[in-house]
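Researcher: Re-running this chain for the archive, since the previous output was lost when a drive failed. Same request as before.
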Amino acid sequence: MRCGLLYSAGKDSTLAALLLDPFYEITLVSCTFGVVDPVPAREAAASVGFDHETVDLDPDVAHEAVERMHDDGFPRSGIQRVHEHAVETVAAGEWTETIDAVADGTRRDDRVPTVERPFAQSVEDRFDIDYLAPLAGIGRGAIGEMAAASLDVETGPSDEIQKGDYEVELRALLAERYGEDAVDDVFPEHTQSRVRGRR
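Model: Regenerated structure tokens:
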């Protein structure tokens, strides 16, 4: 069975891939709007031994998300919209011949993105595949311990950690449209992770 797993190069999505690996042929999928090349995600995928693909998302969704974030003054609804679009795009499978499942690294205590049960069931029904969230029942502390035991992880402020995810692109689009100060106004300071390899 083949699984396309939404991949940011961070510890959560990498750990999700490791947990699913015994059961699925995993392809790590970076979704892009074409603003930033997901080189860090390709490098991280190679460092942990998984195939990697890049899938193009609808640029209109990015612009809609940036407007929402700017209007709201925080990123939650914009990132949520993009994540759901990414799940649907990967699930549609136009980037591959076959796919049996789509997965992500969302955790139990994530504030954003989250995948609610009705959305997951809708994806499964509409695309005739399984939606998997192997970390959905695991908290941040346990994930940190699991990642520390199995992965070489770099952490730091989100504006310093180079990743291959759509948050990087949304930041760039927000800065382009509303200026650098808008990025600081919308995105709270938080720590990101990037996987450098397996331990």
